[in-house]
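Predict the assembly for these two chains.
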Amino acid sequence: MARDGGVSCLRSSETMSVGIGKMESPPLDLDEVHVLAVDDSLVDRIVIERLLRITSCKVTAVDSGWRALEFLGLDNEKASAELDRLKVDLIITDYCMPGMTGYELLKKIKESSSFRQVPVVIMSSENVLTRIDRCLEEGAEDFLLKPVKLADVKRLRSYLTRDVKLPNGNKRKLPEDSIPVHTSPPPPPPPSPLTVSPDSSDSSPPLTVSPESSDSSPTLSPVEIFSSPLSSLLDDEDDDVLSSSPESSPMPEESPVRRQKMGSPGLSYYIKLGSSKLLINMIATCVNKFFKITTCVYLSHN
Amino acid sequence: MDAHVAQLQMQYRNYILSLYQQGFLDDQFTELKSLQDDGSPDFVAEVLSLFFDDCVKLVGNMARALDQTGTVDFCQVGANVHQLKGSSSSVGAKRVKGLCINFKELCEAKNYEGCVRCLQQVDVEYKTLKAKLQDMFNLEKQIVQAGGIVPQVDIN
């Protein structure tokens, strides 16, 4: 179940069946991009899943680096027989996670023979240049600052549908003969928000504590969804909330923009690095140079 | 009927704008709203519900960590603050996020009284936001029940 932090493989067809819509499930598309999303925050998992689905990706979301490795079959030495059927086109992972950081996960993926070619994108809420550099040097495709926006995901999506240039100069296309995705069986529907008791009163007070019921009506209003019980102190997850190791340089730096190793430079990355100042500077410099050149040309002709 | 709907819609617009103007919400909330459509009409409510569940859990963790007789594990508190900062940032809960930024510094400084005060503020703030958003959802419901459409509100 997503709330317990397991694997949530909500494919678009399953999303529809959870009461959000009644569209028919689309036919299996062998060229459909499959993304593995890794984030210990449930809220962030739900958001990134939505962002990816809107951009027509199949999504498998897990809550830790270990579960990601497990899903990929990299958690033990012997190769899994399932691997032949597993198609993952992109891995997007949070950096700061208890246990195994996104950086450590990145390293393990790049060390594996089966998945080193898969682009890995790192997400982080902190703009730490050394962190970004370290990830890019280890082979990360891109680095996104949280909160991740649709524009960021659309950009990722766009470079998945063309050749991806690897550091050694080889190009990799998405496999034409994509094998059907092997994902875990669909989990139960997402957590309690969608199983709240039906509306029985005319006015719902702000902090209604309504008992959980098994009402699975697909047409619950936002008000009912919103007034879920407050009593969900998940003590068993305390162990997971420990030690995020402090950064060596926690202060954000205003260093000049660094190009990533491959793929598009990441416009949103530039914008977020120095708000819009760096980008404006770059544009201003280019415009300046352009005007200088045209002025010289004009003067030389007169 | 139409006048009633129009009035509700106006009320809704003004309410949303005030939430932004008073700093309760930021553009990430706008982003979340843009991800909602007819196919996923309750996406925002679902995410916010999970966020408030997170708040309850994390505030509880922090309260327990700060309630230790003996040495307080500020790393533990800080880890929870980091999580809360992350999820508040992801839903556009601007004030909560701002408090978390202060809270983090207080944890790093191992400022016990400061942490306790800040935790109380966080507790009040997320509950206030929850109430405000509940009112917002109520307005949406009223509009729909009156036969209208919930307007897209342009923040700019």
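Chain B has a mean pLDDT of 94. Residues 43 and 113 of chain B are 38 Å apart (CA to CA).
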